[in-house]
Amino acid sequence: MNPYTLITSEPDSMQVYLKKIWRSRSLILTFARRDLKVKYAQTYLGLAWTILQPATGIVLYTFFFGYLLELDSGSVPFVLYVTSGLLAWNFFAYGVFQGTASIQESAQVIKKIYFPKAVLPLSKITVGLVELAISLVLIIPLFFWFGIMPSWRIIFLPVAVLLTALNAMSLVFWISALSYRFRDLIHIVPYVIYFGIWVTPVFYARSLIPEILQPLVWVNPMAASVEFWRWCYFDAYDISPLFSLSVGFNLLLVIIGFWVYTRNETKFTDFA
Fold it and tell me: According to a count of CB atoms within 10 Å of the terminal CB, is the N or C end of the chain lower?
């Protein structure tokens, strides 16, 4: 075995880069613990904010769209319908917003220490997973309240979470890789977060969209994620055959975005 490591200016292959990420897994956890401590330091409610924030959204969406506008959610109670979609969207939004900001946020660390820069957005996804695990307790009492048993397909929920994480990472990779040259891309992120929810069936049923526009829904990878979450929760919920095409498209975006990201990460020090 060669005891030496050869370091060159050439970008790593994807296989080598993935091995570096795996060797840096403790750094991912270190950054994640740091973020959790900073986020909830000197707060009275602490991690309770993780439940309070989505709960507020659930109440507002249910009141305006379920009670006032009386939107139909099929056989699923509207509050359960909104909760299942909002938890997925909040996880995605946190990953995108924090992941794209992670390079600038850790500028001083990047300039002093070498490590795979993908560690930074991955640490944000890890924080998002912790908060998602806590906020999932919101949906449990709702199942009891409405006397509904979760579907046996709930065993696939980790796959739905992974799919949502990949959706977030796809955007993070592309925006981070290109924003060092096109800095306007950073300003697109809030629009993705604040307006993206309106083109994703989070608080309205997919059936409300005209039939001729249905295929366009699946161009949005988060539509597939949200629908998959609901498929995991509810027996009566069906998923479109276009789901697999949407997932395949997103996986392609993730792989290409990751490749572009690794080829440009040496320029992040100038951007940071």
Answer: N
CA atoms of 10 and 203, how far apart (whole Å): 47
Q: What does the block give as tokens for 129?
A: 């997973």
* Domain contains 125: yes
Rounded Cα gap, residues 165 and 96, in angstroms: 9
Render 42-67 in DSSP notation, one character per residue: T-SSGGGHHHHHHHHHHHHHIIIIII
- Section 204-227 average pLDDT: 84
Q: Rounded to whole angstroms, how far apart are CA atoms 88 and 81?
A: 11
For residue 165, give the nearest of 117, 135, 130 by alpha carbon. Answer: 130
Residue-level pLDDT at 215: 80
| Rounded CA separation 190/7 (Å) | 38
User: What whole-number distance in Å separates Cα of residue 28 and Cα of residue 123?
Assistant: 5
Residue 110 near residue 117, CB atoms below 8 Å: yes
The CA distances from residue 268 to 25, 27, 33, 158, 181, in Å, are 20, 18, 23, 32, 10
Residue 10 has pLDDT above 70, yes or no: no
Name the residue range of residue 202's domain: 45-271
